[in-house]
Specification:
Shape: globular
CATH superfamily: Divalent-metal-dependent TIM barrel enzymes
Number of helices: 9
Number of domains: 1
Largest sheet: 8 strands, parallel, barrel
Strand content: 5-15%
Number of strands: 8
Distance between the termini: 8 Å
């Protein structure tokens, strides 16, 4: 068996009911999930029951796509309010890690980088403070330049965390994004070190681990070097257009499950 617990991001199954997704992941041999934080889909108690019934843990929550750094307060404040509700949901769910990041798909500032970087820091600080009041930890997810205009490397995330000065804020590194942005992904893991609280895995083409050119052996070695004790969350998709949707056309869920099976087997052998 793998030494790391293995989970899957539920958003990769699209609009499939959580009960069906949970059944499929249990059958594939996964330990848990990163649950999509769409609060219109389920209550915390209902989601917890579905996952428990299928023997799955809730490792983390991934947020809906909201813009916490937008210069227009009429857009920014609802985004923050959503995160505050998500924290309440997480507290009721059992205190999983809560991921946050900038708006996915906005790759340039609306005003300017100085203002929006300040807005991002302030927003994450507010989210972190609210999380601390609920005994929750949050992780800032580092995304690539084609998905967001802010925070592209582990080093940049650490600089923001230093400014925040909050003990309950860590970093989420993703092998797919690191493949684009980091000079040396394994070294980035080592540099983030004890602040790495969550790790996502998909190969360089966002397919199954082993289907691209990412050196996962080096990244796993780095995880051991820093004594990483969190789960590995698989976030691959079937090949196809539009990186912002998992739906790639014919039989995409079947293809996704093949990729998830291959990824689990890779980590069970090498992890």
């Amino acid at each position: 068996m793998a030494n790391f617990k293995l989970g899957v991001c539920t958003w990769t199954f699209g609009d499939q009911a959580l009960s069906q997704t949970a059944q499929r992941l249990a059958a594939l041999g996964y330990d848990g999930v990163e649950l999509l934080g769409d609060l219109s889909l389920y209550t915390a108690s209902r989601a917890a029951q579905i996952l428990e019934d299928n023997g799955l843990a809730v490792f983390s929550l991934t947020p809906a796509n909201v813009d916490i750094a937008h210069p227009n307060p009429s857009l920014r404040q609802p985004a923050l309010d959503y995160f505050f509700r998500l924290l309440d949901f997480a507290a009721e769910l059992g205190q999983p890690l809560v991921s946050c990041h900038g708006f996915v798909g906005r790759i340039a500032p609306v005003s300017n980088m100085i203002e929006e970087d300040e807005l991002l820091v302030n927003a994450v600080w507010q989210i972190g403070q609210r999380a601390a009041e609920r005994n929750l930890r949050i992780v800032f997810e580092v995304l690539n330049r084609y998905e967001t205009h802010q925070i592209h490397t582990g080093e940049e995330a650490l600089r923001m965390i230093e400014v925040l000065n909050l003990e309950n804020v860590g970093v989420l590194l993703d092998a797919y994004h690191m493949n684009i942005e980091e000079r040396n992904p394994a070294q980035a893991i080592r540099d983030v070190g004890s602040r790495l609280w969550l790790y996502h895995a998909a190969d360089s083409n966002r397919q199954a681990v082993g289907r691209g050119h990412t050196d996962f052996r080096a990244q796993v070695d780095a995880l051991y070097d820093i004594k990483y004790d969190g789960p590995i969350i698989i976030e691959c998709t079937a090949p196809g257009p539009n990186p912002f949707t998992p739906d790639k056309g014919n039989n995409w869920r079947e293809i996704l499950e093949i990729h998830l099976d291959e990824s689990r087997k890779w980590f069970e052998k090498h992890g």
